[in-house]
Design goal:
The chain is mainly beta. It has five helices and 18 strands.
């Protein structure tokens, strides 16, 4: 069993409740990655949904989630012929840390029109991109192979650009295939794109995160691009696209985060 699947384990404690252990293996500076946490709560909702195709997941991060034991409580909030909608709460030490909603479809409907008005990002060859190294408590980069295109990797050496954009490649170490839940992790595994323009001098905690899955990936490597255009009142947005190597759009995402420069 791949490490990601081990760290997604849920123990049923009731018809609509689960116990889990939030792993340290997918952390950013010791804090569990928001995409990994979203995958945990989405996985709990998926277990009870009669429709198994995860379409949309949105999470509000109410307080810091720590590695260790947690409870996930879920409820069905809507059912129709096309969709099921669920809500989940992740609780640690009696305090709600995450509130999430997910929409599921049955996955058997006619795919309908396919019309893309934008192409996948053009990326440098994988072996010329900069692989983000595992650094202490940044354990997500021990288990995910993330490679930044040289155009946006200058901030590692203090060379900044005017565009807050990150693009590059991602896969699991060990080449685990991507499924819907692991796409949630991939969509949050790149450093904040604001680092390209401001350097690693900012604190950028996620407030809210939404991901819409369009197609399941067909390749072990994914091509990603993330862009921030506006920083105002201590808030920024991060818009993302995830593609596979066949040229199919896998997911689109939007993240709202705080932006605060570190003092000193």
């Amino acid at each position: 069993m791949h490490l990601f699947d081990q760290d997604m384990t849920l123990a049923e404690t009731g018809p609509l409740s689960f116990k889990t252990n939030v792993s340290r293996n997918w952390s950013i500076n010791g804090n569990p990655n928001g995409g990994y946490l979203m995958a945990l709560v989405a996985g709990a909702m998926e277990k009870r949904s009669g429709k198994k195709s995860l379409l949309i997941t949105t999470a509000a991060y109410l307080a810091k989630t720590l590695p260790g034991d947690a409870d996930i409580l879920i409820e069905n909030i809507n059912q129709s012929a096309s969709f099921e909608r669920w809500q989940a709460r992740l609780i640690q030490a009696g305090k709600e840390k995450i509130r999430a909603m997910a929409t599921f479809a049955d996955g058997t409907t006619d795919p309908g029109e396919r019309h893309y008005e934008k192409n996948p990002p053009e990326l440098a060859a994988k072996d010329t991109c900069m692989q983000i190294p595992p650094m202490g408590e940044y354990t997500v980069y021990k288990n995910m192979d993330v490679r930044l295109d040289p155009q946006c990797a200058g901030w590692f050496s203090g060379s900044l650009v005017n565009v807050s954009e990150h693009k590059g490649w991602i896969r699991f170490v060990g080449d685990r295939p991507f499924d819907a839940l692991s796409v949630l992790l991939a969509a949050d595994a790149f450093p904040p794109p604001v680092f390209a323009s401001h350097g690693m001098t900012a604190w950028v905690p996620t407030i809210e995160f939404s991901i819409n899955i369009r197609n399941l990936p067909q390749t072990p490597w994914l091509k990603c691009i993330f862009r921030t255009r506006f920083i105002t009142s201590g808030i920024l947005e991060e818009d993302g696209e995830v593609w596979d190597e066949t040229g199919e759009l896998v997911a689109v995402s939007r993240q709202i985060a705080q932006f605060r420069k570190k003092s000193g």
